[in-house]
Every structure is written in structure tokens, then in C-alpha cells.
Amino acid sequence: MLREATVRPTTVLIVDDEEPLAELVRGYLVAEGWQVEIVGDGLMAIDAAREDRPDVVVLDVMLPGVDGFEVLRRIRAFSDVYVIMLTARTEEIDRVVGLTVGADDYLTKPFSPRELVARIKAMLRRPRVPGPNETQRFRLEDLVIDRPSRTVSLLGRVVDLTALEFDLLAALATDPGIVVSRQQLLDRVWGLDFVGDAHVVDVHIANVRRKLDDDAAEPRFIETVRGVGYRFRPGATKR
Between β-strands 137-140 and 237-238, what pairing exists: parallel, antiparallel or unpaired? Predict the structure, then answer.
């Protein structure tokens, strides 16, 4: 008799010291069939992310001891886990800082748990591997983007990109010389049902440029088309 394959359930780590809120969110996530763990401080969050390897981390900015920004920096040193940051602050700079240090998305408190569920689902549906007809490798000058291994190298040195940054760069490189709008990048990388704003694209493009030593004023790889979006410089070879 054949046994059915065991599918690992989606696991979510909630990092928030507001216990009532964390328990409310847990209820919505468990209703989706997901496994949920709650921790209340930054150091415990780092340990849990390393040891339990969750699929998604819901991370509050304001934590006792180590704040959410520092927690995210440390997690990004060993994991590309999806991270949604929660902040009670409304200043744009807080959202920019969170995205710059590697968050995939953010929500401002108070928020709807249903919206959080929708954003997590959108992340989990984000394609991670190319389709059978998609180009597997791109080269532009001394930059090489390899889809199967999900690696990027510059001058023979591996560039440390997050999973989202890799997807964003690969999405641009797929059509060198063609302008891709912010909305198109959101649809391709974040998913068609992404409910955040297009500002996340600009922040992550800036991160990719910084890691590629790509000057926005004199770009070697990614060009800005003002008021529209971005394009990968023409001349890249594909195979």
C-alpha cells in the first residue's frame, strides 16, 4: 500500500511583545492550516529563525532589547526567509529602513489580520524557479546571472543577494533593453495580488545596485526610466 507524501505545513514565526495582538494574529494564521510560533523579544527571534527555519517571519519593529531592524539584519546573515515588518510608526523613513535592511514587505499598525494573511499568501505564491521556456543564464560584461543555481557573480565573485533581490534582477535581465514598469515588476516578483505600494521596488532596486556597485547616475547594468520604471541594459547574452 502506497503512503501519501507528507507535505510540510507552512510555518510562520511571529515576533511581537504585544501578546494579545500576537495571539489574535496566530488565530487567523492557524485557520489557514499554518503552524505558528510566537516569541516576544529579538534575541529569541534570531534563535528561532536559525533553528526552526520558518517560511515567513512577521517581525515587529519595537521590541525589548534588540529592535526589529537589528533582528532583521542578523537574520539576513543566514536566511532568505520572507519577512513582513510591523511598525506602529507612520514615518516613511521607518518603512524605507526596514526595506533597505532586507524586509520583503511591511504593515503599519493597526492592521487587518486578513490583510496580513493575504500578503503572506502572495509571498508564498511568488515563483522561485523559471518556467521550462525561460532563459537560464544571462551575461552582461562581467556580470553573470544563473537561474538554476540562483547565483549572481561579478568579476568572478559571488554577489550576496537575497531571494527577492535575485528575483528582481532576473526579472529585469529577462528582457534586456526593454523598459519594465514598477507595476510589472510588482506583478512578476511580488505576485499579482500584492497589496502594498510600488515604493518597495525602488528600495530593492537600490539595494541591488549597491551590491553590484552600479551607479544610478552612470549605470552599467540597471537603468532608470524616469516616471516609468527600469530596464536592464541592452547587450546581455542569454542561454
Answer: antiparallel
Which residues have a Cβ under 8 Å from the Cβ of 119 and sit 6 or more positions away? 84, 105, 107, 194, 195, 196
Q: Is 156 left (phi over 0), alpha (psi -120 to 50) or beta?
A: left
DSSP 138-164: EEETTEEEETTTTEEEETTEE----HH
* SS3 at position 235: coil
How many CB atoms neighbour CB 39 within 10 A? 20
pLDDT of 194 above 70: no
Residues 6+ apart with CB under 8 A from 188: 167, 171, 180
Q: Looking at residues 100-117, what average pLDDT do you find?
A: 86
Neighbouring residues of 164: CB distance < 8 A, sequence distance ≥ 6: 80, 104, 189, 204
Q: Is 0.85 topped by the overall pTM?
A: no
Q: Please, what is the angle between helix 92-100 and helix 68-76, to 10°?
A: 20
As a whole number of angstroms, the distance between CA 197 and CA 159 comes to 27
